[in-house]
Amino acid sequence: MSTIERAEVFVASPGRTFVTLRITTSDGVTGLGDATLNGRELAVASYLQDHLVPLLIGKDPARIEDMWQYLYKGAYWRRGPVTMTAISAVDTALWDIKGKVAGLPVYQLLGGRSRDGVMVYSHASGTDVPSLLDDVQRYLDLGYKAVRAQAAVPDVGGTYGVRKGTVYEPAASTLPDEQPWDTEAYLRFAPTYLDAVRERFGFGFHLLHDVHHRLTPIEAARFGKRVEDAQLFWMEDPTPAENQEAFRLIRQHTTTPLAVGEVLTSIWDVQHLITEQLIDYVRTTVVHAGGITHLRRIFDLAALYQVRTGSHGATDLSPVSLAAAVHIDIAVPNFGIQEYMGHVDETAEVFRSGVTFADGMLHPCEEPGLGVEYDEKAAERFPYEPRYLPVARRLDGSVHDW
Ligand code: CS2
Ligand code: MG
């Protein structure tokens, strides 16, 4: 029987920080897992290196479900982003290995294709409406069928989602960047630029918007109602989701579809949202919600309630979890859309991925496993650089949800 012989944790910053787990079996088969938790990377690296790696050595890599139960129940302290990201990385690496041993791309182990390609959306943004419209045009010219739109709120300064470089990267400072927030200014301005996008480009593509946890339920209800004419594909994270019941109030006031889940890390964290049909898309991911094994459970529960998938796919999710996401997305029956922001060139020097983009869709690699390789020699050229996500403060100085 093949056993787990080695488990290595790599922390490197090729363009941004990624934590990557590589498991190697006694037969020399390797598997990769993404363990990146933006702004708290070393917590997961230590959880893996100091607490999980000693448990993996000698175990049977084929027993993926058993390993998941062993690491989840064996922790005693359950759930939460650090624990679940570490478990996700182990799980994803074992699926990569299983695919390689079987000689099949992972999606074939998940039931094969349900669709020809995975529709994706990317991030258009601007410091004002004209620059936002130019950026939307750019993504439509690249063939995207779906585009997210975010713009800076005039006179308030930094606002969530406005790109500075080639890809949007919010973790850009060595201490948290404190950004001003004014809910009323946002509520007045954001609907106007979403209307402007529709006025310029029409309704022949999907338009998305991320509220990023910033509103109270009644403010979110007001916003959702106001933007109904823009026919959004979804309004994302309208209000913090710890209180899942809060979404019922939003639901009562607007038909704008709701998407939640990128910061949620288990089926129990989205159970009420799904079973009460309080959301339309669930955004949980391979890297933060328990790997392929657990994400399938979440998506199968969602399918029972006509909730579709819409996994998070920002730059802080590595090419490893993006590839795993595409393998799931191509197979699940209730796929909705996949976020795809791409990565900077330095990232591609370390991660070789077989995922391809064409005609507004991503396509999985046909190689056995996930179809991603990690070049640790190249990674040595990009030593770890600590970065923090911003903190939002209201105009009175109190902390707000960033
Ligand atoms: C955002 C992310 O892509 C999204 O929907 O919510 O950019 C998020 O802010 C980052 O992934 C946080 O690390
Ligand atoms: Mg988001």
Automatic annotation (TrEMBL):
Taxon lineage: Bacteria, Bacillati, Actinomycetota, Actinomycetes, Kitasatosporales
BP-aspect Gene Ontology terms: amino acid catabolic process; carbohydrate catabolic process
PANTHER family for the chain: D-GALACTONATE DEHYDRATASE-RELATED, STARVATION-SENSING PROTEIN RSPA
Domain Mandelate racemase/muconate lactonizing enzyme C-terminal: 129-257
Superkingdom field: Bacteria
Record-linked CDD domains: RspA
One Pfam short name: MR_MLE_C
Name of protein: D-galactonate dehydratase family protein
Gene Ontology molecular-function annotations: magnesium ion binding; mannonate dehydratase activity
Cross-referenced InterPro entries: D-mannonate_dehydratase-like (IPR034589), DgoD-like (IPR034593), Enolase-like_C_sf (IPR036849), Enolase-like_N (IPR029017), Enolase_C-like (IPR029065), Mandel_Rmase/mucon_lact_enz_CS (IPR018110), Mandelate_racemase_C (IPR013342), Mandelate_racemase_N_dom (IPR013341)
